[in-house]
Write a structure and sequence with these properties.
Elements (H helix, E strand, L loop, with lengths): L12 E5 L2 H4 L45 H15 L3 E5 L2 H4 L10 H16 L3 E7 L5 H7 L6 H16 L6 E5 L11 H8 L9 H26 L4 E8 L2 E3 L4 H23 L4 H9 L8 H9 L4 E6 L3 E3 L20 E2 L5 E2 L1 H15 L3 E6 L16 H20 L4 E4 L22 E3 L11 E3 L1 H11 L7
Parallel strand pairs: 1-2, 1-12, 2-3, 3-4, 4-5, 5-7, 6-8, 7-11, 11-12
Antiparallel strand pairs: 9-10, 13-14
The structure holds 6-O-phosphono-beta-D-glucopyranose.
Length: about 475
Amino acid sequence: MTIKDRPFPDGFLWGGAVAAHQLEGGYDQGGKGLSTADVMTLGTNEQPREITDGVVGGKYYPNHQAIDFYHRYPEDIKVFAGMGFKCFRTSIAWTRIFPNGDETEPNEEGLQFYDDLFDECLKYGIQPVVTLAHFEMPYHLVKQYGGWRNRKVIKFYMNFSQACFERYRDKVTYWMTFNEINNQTNFESDGAMLTDSGIIHQPGENREKWMYQAAHYELVASAEAVKLGHQINPDFQIGAMIAMCPIYPLTSNPADVLFAQRAMQTRFYFADVHANGFYPQWLLNRFETEHFNIDITEADLATLKAGTVDYIGFSYYMSFTVQGTGTLAYNEEHDLVKNPYVKASDWGWQVDPIGLRYALNWFTDRYHLPLFIVENGLGAVDQKTADNQIHDDYRIDYLTDHLRQVKKAVLEDGVNLLGYTPWGCIDLVAASTGQMSKRYGFIYVDENDDGSGSLKRYKKDSFEWYQNVIATNGSEIE
Ligand code: BG6
């Protein structure tokens, strides 16, 4: 069987993906409160973003302006429509709806903003695909409640979810509860813990324990949200969102293979709980032996069972590799080794298109659920020529190589894939570093790392390429 000249299935959702805090800007407009993303400064690959105690004068916070989508979205959506988008994945900034997080009533101006944004999409036949919590939460909940280490936050998240589900009941079908909930597997990263769980670690505390505790409350909140969403609209499709980095053994040494398996179990137990509705036994055993004393109640376990997800949304950028260490306690900060068979991006992310086909099959075998690739792409430095051209053939190559593997997984392996939304369809602020120079888009935004620039938009060469992929429903990918 060949994939040449064969299209993707009818109704395949081609689109693009972004997140509110990385493109909207307007961080203090429309009644919006301060979010965790608003207290992170500019960083680089070598220099992590600083997390400040509130907004500190004299520091630069890239998400405050981002690319000013808050004011420019009608023009941007029009350009997406010109590319032929069938869907547009974005998130709802929690702090536009509940500025502090613990109010009892939502902020009407924030709700109206997303009504207008979604209407603008629907006007062009683009369906919004919405993440509820994408790497941000009200900063007040961090300061006052300790973020997701506090059970009370479940209730606040439910208020937020309910307000969104009710308001956008007839505008949104595809939802995701928590973006890349499993990135906090790397609990030693301050950035990952703040963005996923609103946790600022105290010196000397057991970071791993608090990660598991926060993740548990998030998983319960997710399951509650799935239940509630289905009551509000039975047609809602509510998914998980998992950062998929397959973890390979460096060699066929059984010790490497076993360790890689445990690393996968560790990184993807979040998906197990989302999809199966219960914890894997190996992890419950680990909670015991490590004396983590995670607060998990019988009621929580019932909720997890009753609120399993409808599909698995996932991001795919890279694969990881590990070598046996003599213990099965996987520590992502220390245990990754270089894979000699794959190249890496300028930011050191291992580029591995075949890993995407592997991932699609792995998820299918494990959960038997529909899948949705909600992020994929290459962060690269682009050069704008004097006549405003951006020749990003490296991005076209990256995406073509990945789509080839996706197509094989769908057409040859029979994977049930709902759609494909490449990350950062328009250049935006990088989550890990806060840089504008780490660009993913089909549309170039004239903005530098320090926020200077005209913010004007320019089409890159990849724009026309992706437009053609959508117009031909992927049939030219071979
Ligand atoms: C994923 C996130 O981790 O990867 C996005 O869901 C993020 O928010 C994307 O932007 C790419 O990472 P980065 O750090 O290059 O922006």
